[in-house]
Write a structure and sequence with these properties.
Keywords: Transferase. By secondary structure, this protein is α/β, with parallel strands linked by helices. It contains five helices and five strands. The chain has one domain: 3-Layer(aba) Sandwich (Oxidized Rhodanese, domain 1), CATH 3.40.250.10. Strand 4, helix 4 and strand 5 form a beta-alpha-beta unit. The radius of gyration is 16 Å and the shape is globular.
Length: 118
């Protein structure tokens, strides 16, 4: 019985450690990026059509995605977003697994544009 509970405990610890954090993109403000990094993980073409102020463009589908962050301290918070939230969720998971404090901005750039209309 002890063995069973030990396995459950370790499984919970492992899965909770690999989960990335999130925040809705409409709750994000430029004041949130003090001492942090804002990364748009879309393609350069998508980035060229519009992006958040102060965002760096690092395509999550690029082979060099993870190497871009080699010079970024692990203590720095990284906010990531994409068009609607799918790619940024994967990017945040990848960065979290590498030891970064990554926050996925839910809703993506589409939500920013929609919010600006209202």
């Amino acid at each position: 019985m002890k063995y069973f509970f030990s396995i459950i405990f370790f499984a919970l610890v492992i899965t909770s450690c690999s989960q990335s954090k999130s925040k809705h993109i409409t709750e994000f403000s430029q004041s949130d990026i003090k001492n942090t990094l804002l990364v748009d993980v879309r393609t350069s073409e998508e980035f060229g059509l519009g992006h958040l102020e102060n965002a760096k463009n690092v395509n999550v589908l690029s082979d060099s995605f993870t190497s871009y962050f080699d010079s970024i301290p692990k203590s720095k918070t990284i906010y990531v977003y994409c068009k609607s939230g799918g790619r940024s969720a994967k990017a945040a998971e990848k960065l979290t697994s590498l030891g970064y404090n990554a926050i996925n901005l839910l809703g993506g750039y589409d939500a920013v544009k929609e919010n600006a209309k209202n």
